[in-house]
Amino acid sequence: MSQVIVVTSGKGGVGKTTTSASFATGLALRGHKTAVVDFDVGLRNLDLIMGCERRVVYDFVNVINKEAALKQALIRDKNCDSLYVLPASQTRDKEALTKEGVAEVITELRNTFEYIVCDSPAGIERGAVMALYFADQAIVVTNPEVSSVRDSDRMLGILAAKSKRAEEEGDPIKEHLLISRYAPKRVNSGDMMSMEDIQELLSVPLLGVIPESESVLNASNSGIPVIHDTGSNAGQAYHDMVARFLGEHRELRFMQPQKRGLLHRLFGS
Amino acid sequence: MAPLETQNRNNPNARKANRQSSATSSVELKGSVFTLTVLRLRSFDVESVGAAIRERIAQAPRFFKNAPIVLDLKDLNSINKTYNFNQLLSTLREKHLLIPVGVRHGSPTQNEAALQAGLAIMQSGDTFTDELDSADTQAPANPNGEQAESMQPRRQSSTATFVDHPIRSGQQVYAKGGDLIITAAVNAGAEVLADGNIHVYAPLRGRALAGIQGDENARIICQCMEAELISIAGNYRVFDEVPEQYLRKPVQVYLQGDKLNINPIGK
Prior knowledge:
A: about 270 residues; about 40% helix; B: about 270 residues; 6-stranded mixed β-sheet
């Protein structure tokens, strides 16, 4: 039974696309046939983060408008055989996403893929609602920062009210919390909200904590999702997160400020 | 924030209609909430009613002078004969300086007669009004033979609305006709409202508005006070910073006059 998972947040810039890319890659690396879909019509980023921006021929809106078949629009990831990307349109706007159109595409994706990861745009308007509407599970990405937590709280309310499952009074969407850009040093000094603070405010099961890491910028520059960078803390944390999602137990890592030797400070992050 | 005047405060169409009418006409229709004294009649006999009223009014003459009142006919429903209100009304108006404005809990025939006499039929179901007539309840004696303090229930209990999941930012819960009981957090940016009391057995970080139909006896009770705004019967207070003495402590909020009192619960 295929699963549709929306990666959302409300707040912009917290790490949804970074997470969608790494999460989908992680699932595919473990042998699960996965599709990652960009719902940010007009401001597409997923293709850049996935490194396939120069291979986009047809996009999500083309498929909805029956201008292309789904097979023609899906781009196979060059780093991972089981992973496919459905990019968003760059020239149209969110009005092009209709509920019926999206429903058809999701249904078709369910026929082929085990996991469908929906990368949501920021905000709570049409694009974000379309991304969450057909979801079975949701990963709410939150930065340890007051406005992000407030927006995530709002988004959790919307997930509980505006999804298809909510409208049809079916089983609710399974919610997961992912904290990203966590800086243990700043948490210890009291500048930054702690994991416990965030959990208390949002009351949603924690899927993982991704530490602030320079490797994330490097990853988006090179078009290779950070989970491939096994040397980086963020990459490893994403591996942990995928494992937990699939039911394995993993201790939370990178929660304490790291003592870094000279070599590490010079070469690694 | 304007005092909550109508149940339609969140209905933009209601407000729009009012604005349109006031722009062009010489009247404006608005819903409003008033506290009225209820005179519960146990007899239609003008003499005995008059005597009883005289006795009660003497206790607080200024309060009752020209007071608008509602006649409660519940105890007289069994009396089938049609009753002429006019004599009673003129007595009340002239002799006791009370101003009857309506009746409630009347039988259909009594209501008809009331309308004839120019009285309104008041919506029953809310018992937030003070009763002019004292209830002759015997205070229960405890085993030691002492009279326990008479504990009159302040009002009929209505069904409470119970919520056991967090109220998230941007969500609103309204407990109509009764209390609201919440056993999870009310997050910042969330709003909880009730006609009656609000109990939050968890942190209250959002807005809480109790007694929104005008019940000044309503209270807000929470386990952990971090509210952005509290209000009882339209009297509100915002908190830029919750004062140290009750920040994150269990408190109850109630109205004294038109002042909001915040008292810590327990030690």
